[in-house]
Design goal:
Order of helices and strands: EEEHEEEHHEEHEEEH
Number of helices: 5
Helix content: 10-25%
Strand content: 35-45%
Distance between the termini: 48 Å
CATH class of the largest domain: Alpha Beta
Shape: globular
Strand order of the largest sheet: 1-2-8-11-10-9
Largest sheet: 6 strands, antiparallel
Number of strands: 11
């Protein structure tokens, strides 16, 4: 019988954490993800179901909200829901059961990688990585942008805490871009 072991998006047994000057870069692997898309004519039902699930209204355009259970806007009537993997391994199934036929849910956990950046002057780093105006961010923003030709989401959790979510299949390339930008700034 095979002895399978989980690996991180970067191919390690444990997530990477590195410090560059005053900033820490951490590979986040303990988050479950599921996307929600409202079905035509069921937009209000979807918003109501997500509000009941999250405990807060779903975020508007270019926003994210929530703490333990959180969501960020992906497009018109589309959101990505985040939750701790330990308590929400079945996040997509839970969401699918809250309001049948109002929206479509897709399991996303293994499709994406996430890197959290914590420290001062993060906007100086992002101006080298993408076109998002992170200098104007104060917390609660979520934008889709391109980093090294990869479609990524940049979430500003606070001015000193950003998350970058990108395709898992390109985790190594995204990590390299982040590290290269770190070295040019710090």
């Amino acid at each position: 019988m095979p002895n399978l072991q989980a690996i991180t998006p970067l191919g390690n047994k444990e997530p990477v954490t590195e410090t560059y000057g005053p900033v820490t870069l951490t590979e986040i692997t303990d988050i479950a993800l599921a996307s929600v898309s409202a079905r035509l004519g069921r937009e209000q039902d979807t918003a109501a179901a997500l509000e009941a699930f999250l405990g807060t209204p779903p975020p508007g355009a270019a926003e994210h909200c929530g703490n333990n259970l959180s969501a960020f806007w992906m497009g018109p009537d589309q959101w990505m829901i985040e939750a701790p993997f330990e308590t929400h391994e079945d996040l997509a199934a839970r969401l699918a059961g809250t309001s049948p036929n109002a929206y479509s849910v897709t399991e996303q956990t293994d499709a994406w990688c996430r890197f959290d950046l914590k420290g001062p002057s993060l906007s100086d780093l992002f101006e080298r990585l993408c076109a998002a105006d992170t200098h104007a961010f104060t917390g609660g923003e979520a934008v889709r942008t391109s980093i090294e030709h990869l479609g990524c989401f940049v979430l500003c959790r606070t001015q000193n805490h950003f998350s970058v979510i990108g395709p898992r299949s390109s985790a190594g390339s995204l990590y390299h871009a982040l590290v290269t930008a770190f070295r040019s700034v710090f």
